[in-house]
Design goal:
This protein is α/β, with parallel strands linked by helices and about 325 residues long. It folds into 2 domains: about 55 residues, no CATH class; about 230 residues, 3-Layer(aba) Sandwich (Rossmann fold). Helices cover about 35% and strands about 20% of the residues. The protein contains 9 helices and 10 strands. A hairpin with a 6-residue loop joins β1 and β2. α7 packs across α8.
């Protein structure tokens, strides 16, 4: 890990200010959304305190869990921390992004032990689109969570370039998730009181080198829906906002957990086309987990998992266009 350098005080202060303003805007929007209040433009902390007791937040309505993975919950992380930057790629063969050997993950103890991963070996390379196939319980999501730094393995090797994920401090894992990995889940985890543009801006405010929210939304063909709220968007459009949010920080890795699981076939194809375009245009290593074998045709490489192990893998000589898929 390189020596950390403090950020210039002026830049640090300005960035803190922008984040604080965004937090206040989200909070005031939440007041309006959840309680029907209309805070004035000069609403202060007293206004929030005065009406705070009327706002009920519970885990069933809050998208906090998904936003944690997306990097939003690291707003309070000291922003002067140096981002985790991969070493420059050498010319020649494609660079190895992930190195995985003997990866195991055990949940529970004694008779309740569950071996979610039982010795996974694989390598993932820049620019690939990889589909992980397997039935429920095969270890797909556990592997994805380990690759993304959301969970830690019980044993084995797991490296992102020269960064050892198995021994990293939590602050380093947070920086890794914030700067290097984009997450897309089956459920969209959008904040209902923010527009599509503002949901994406949650990431661009804290990323080290983001693209403008408008550009990210344009990449997924939502340029005309920038100022629509989630309730005004279809399920497929909401998922595409989630994709735009994930790619806006220009991640090296895009991890997709059943991204079409909650969608019908036609809408699912549109979402897969957006993922395909991100992989092609940005060169992002993209890993999609699914139990839908049809999606294997759009991949460079298909890895089959069973009982926590890699059962087999194969490479497609020609990738099928997402628009040609049907299930």
């Amino acid at each position: 890990m390189r020596e950390k350098k403090p950020a210039p005080s002026g830049a640090f202060s300005n960035r803190r200010c922008r984040v604080a303003q965004l937090n206040l805007r989200i909070w005031l929007r939440s007041i309006t959304y959840h309680s029907g209040l209309k805070p004035s433009a000069n609403a202060s902390g007293e206004t929030i305190q005065q009406h705070g007791k009327r706002i009920a937040f519970d885990s069933s309505r809050s998208p906090t869990a998904g936003l944690l993975a997306a990097g939003v919950a690291v707003i309070n992380l000291p922003l002067a921390m140096e981002p985790l930057t991969p070493e420059p790629a050498a010319r020649g063969p494609r660079r190895k992004v992930f190195h995985v050997r003997g990866l195991t993950k055990v949940y529970g103890l004694g008779l309740a032990e569950v071996h979610a991963l039982a010795g996974v070996d694989l390598d993932l390379f820049e620019g690939e689109l990889v589909v992980l196939l397997g039935p429920s319980g095969s270890g797909k999501t556990t592997l994805l969570n380990n690759l993304g730094g959301l969970d830690l393995p019980t044993a084995g090797e797991l490296r992102y370039q020269d960064f050892d994920l198995t021994t990293a401090e939590e602050s380093d894992l947070t920086r890794y998730r914030r700067d290097s990995v984009g997450f897309i889940f089956q459920f969209y985890n959008l904040i209902p009181s923010l527009t599509a543009r503002e949901n994406v801006a949650l990431i661009t405010e804290i990323a080290r080198d983001p693209m403008p929210p408008e550009d990210a939304l344009q990449m997924v063909n939502l340029g005309a829906r920038l100022d629509h709220f989630p309730a005004q968007l279809s399920g497929g459009e909401q998922q595409r906002v989630a994709i735009a949010r994930a790619i806006a920080k220009r991640p090296e890795v895009l991890l997709c957990d059943e991204p079409t699981g909650a969608l019908d076939v036609r809408t699912g194809i549109v979402v897969l086309e957006a993922i395909e375009r991100v992989n092609r245009d940005l060169g992002t290593l993209t890993v999609v987990i699914t139990h839908n074998a049809v999606m294997a045709d759009m991949a460079d490489r298909v890895i089959h998992l069973s009982d926590g192990r890699v059962l087999n893998e194969h490479r497609n000589s020609v990738r099928a266009a997402a628009s040609s898929l049907n299930w």
